[in-house]
């Protein structure tokens, strides 16, 4: 499947271009419906417990409810999954491998952490997710090689989500390492930088064992740790 699953969540959303393609599947996750409507984007699916949508959106919710289960799912308020986790499950069930998450940071810190855990779940179920927020891109990487996009210029930080990342190699960045360990109790992977002469062309992070959080912030080139 070539399309992407786009999740618009209800955290903080900084207006940015959402490059929706015809084959993409867009899910409005509860209060994320508000952001999509502000961007002029009609979702393909609306889901949530709707505890963060006011009466102003009651007609829209009812419209999607009337479209049936192919386009609408009301979740119970008391549940194990967060609304975003439930949306990720739906995307995986429908065969999507690439997930773009907007409105997934800021606001409540616990929800931001929950969304990071959702990205771990997506990775371990055969997908890859990115949280996009203004100039920041966040993703979760596991064993293997992750190439930094060639159009990216800025600061990259790697944090261990497991007890320790093993056999970590970084190439094409200001600070390079080979077959190193990155523990989760020391922020040694914070604030690496693309090279001024070549940007991130050819830059990559490689992990032999473990799961890590990669944070890429455009244009934030800070030599101080």
SSE ordering: EEHEHEHEHEEEEEEEEE
Percent range for β-strand residues: 25-35%
With helices defined by DSSP (H or I, 4 residues minimum), what is the helix count?
A: 4
Largest sheet: 10 strands, mixed
Number of strands: 14
CATH top level of the largest domain is: Alpha Beta
Helix content: 10-25%
Oligomer kind: single chain
Radius of gyration: 18 Å
Overview in brief:
The chain has helices at 32-38, 58-66, 83-93, 109-124, and strands at 5-8, 25-29, 45-48, 72-74, 98-102, 128-133, 136-141, 144-147, 154-160, 164-171, 177-183, 192-193, 204-207, 212-218.
Task: Give keywords.
single chain, 2 domains, Rossmann fold, alpha/beta, 14 strands, 225 residues, 4-stranded antiparallel beta sheet, elongated
Describe the structure.
It contains four helices and 14 strands. By secondary structure, the chain is α/β, with parallel strands linked by helices. It has helices spanning 32-38, 58-66, 83-93, 109-124; strands at 5-8, 25-29, 45-48, 72-74, 98-102, 128-133, 136-141, 144-147, 154-160, 164-171, 177-183, 192-193, 204-207, 212-218. Helix content is 19%, strand content 32%. It folds into two domains: 5-134, Thiamin pyrophosphokinase, catalytic domain (Rossmann fold); 140-218, Thiamin pyrophosphokinase, catalytic domain (Rossmann fold, 3-Layer(aba) Sandwich), CATH 3.40.50.10240. The longest helix is centred in the middle third of the chain and has 16 residues, at 109-124. A hairpin with a 2-residue loop joins β6 (128-133) and β7 (136-141).
SSE topology:
Elements: E1 5-8, E2 25-29, H1 32-38, E3 45-48, H2 58-66, E4 72-74, H3 83-93, E5 98-102, H4 109-124, E6 128-133, E7 136-141, E8 144-147, E9 154-160, E10 164-171, E11 177-183, E12 192-193, E13 204-207, E14 212-218
